[in-house]
Amino acid sequence: MNHKVQNYKQSGSLKLPVRLLVWGGKLAVLCLTLYYLRQALLDSENQTAFSWVRWQQVWSTNGWAAALALVLLPLNWGVEALKWQYLSQKIEKLSFLKAYRAVLAGLTLGFVTPNRVGDYAGRILTLHQKNRVDAIGAILLGRLCQLFATVLVGSGALAYFFYSYYLPLATPVGISVALGLLLVNGWMLALLFSFHWAIAVLERIPLLKRWVHYFAVIGDYSPEELNRMILLSGLRYAVFMAQFIALLWAFGVNLTLDQYIWGVAGTFLLKSLVPSINALADIGMRELSAMHFFGLMGQEPMLVLGASLSLWALNIALPSVVGLLFVLPLKLTRTR
């Protein structure tokens, strides 16, 4: 199906009250970002696990591992920017640098909104106005591909922990769990490669037809393009996992490679599946998940907490602060 990019005629200027609201919104984003960072750092448990003394110990013993996690930071978001650059080609040609700025702006707005919905606004507002409606579907597709990578590897983690610590595979419940995980992954993969059929069906339903144009661009991506997007999502997942493993090692969590992988994969899966109300709840879910899975493997909770908080500070908090530089210049109206 060949989706025609939407083209809506909209005003290129804003009245003064609207401009004041826009700048008020930007100021609110700035204040909320700084507030959530402050609250996260002032939490008593976080201070214990993430103190300056603890970081000095980390750098003196396993500084190379912490440095590796830091070096991988631009690569992590660089792969995400590459994904957005690739997805946006159906809508508007973006340079890699512009895509990177859009990703950081989206990260900042997502930092202060429930379930990271601000990520959509950050990326959309960097596009020309006539292309913004179509961007919703492209962003959704990118998130679904990333979710598929998370669910795929996370399913292996759930199987590892379930069969290692709860029930063996050779039981009715164990077999049911295995079949359930296979069905979930198969369903997600089938969904990704059948969007063009779904769009065609939805366009025939009167009650839904008016909403289809927001997502119709998803049907324009070929199977080859979807394969590339899934591979890029897998690459970003691997980089993110490498950062977490490096920080766990730096904080003194010593495990075998497969235990690292399954512990991190389980943490990422639960974090992705549970909706987040705000940035503080987002931190809490990741930390609780990490302490649960690594606790099953006999690891000290405070060491795991320190590594997990460091990952959050490195991959979310720091880029969100940098993204403020790209949020402030955003405009509601933008023409060529």
Commentary on this structure:
This protein is mainly alpha-helical and 336 residues long. It has 13 helices and no strands. The chain has one domain (16-327). Helix 1 packs antiparallel against helix 13 and helix 10 crosses helix 13.
Report a brief summary of the structure.
This protein has 336 residues and is mostly helical.
Structural key phrases:
mainly alpha, 336 residues, single chain
Present the secondary structure layout:
Elements: H1 16-42, H2 44-49, H3 52-87, H4 96-111, H5 118-124, H6 132-165, H7 172-192, H8 195-202, H9 206-212, H10 223-250, H11 257-273, H12 279-296, H13 301-327
Separate helix tally: 13
Question: Helical amount among residues, as a percent range?
Answer: over 70%
Distance between the termini: 28 Å
Low-confidence stretches: 7-13
Secondary-structure element string = HHHHHHHHHHHHH
Q: Give the oligomer, counting copies of the same chain as homo and different chains as hetero.
A: single chain
What percentage of amino acids are in beta strands? under 5%
Q: What does the largest sheet look like?
A: none
Query: What integer is the average pLDDT?
Result: 82
Cα-atom radius of gyration: 21 Å
Secondary-structure class: mainly alpha
Question: Would you count the extended β strands for me?
Answer: 0
Transmembrane segments: 20-37, 58-79, 138-163, 175-202, 235-254, 302-328
Protein name: Flippase-like domain-containing protein
GO cellular component, one term: plasma membrane
InterPro entries: L-PG_synthase/AglD
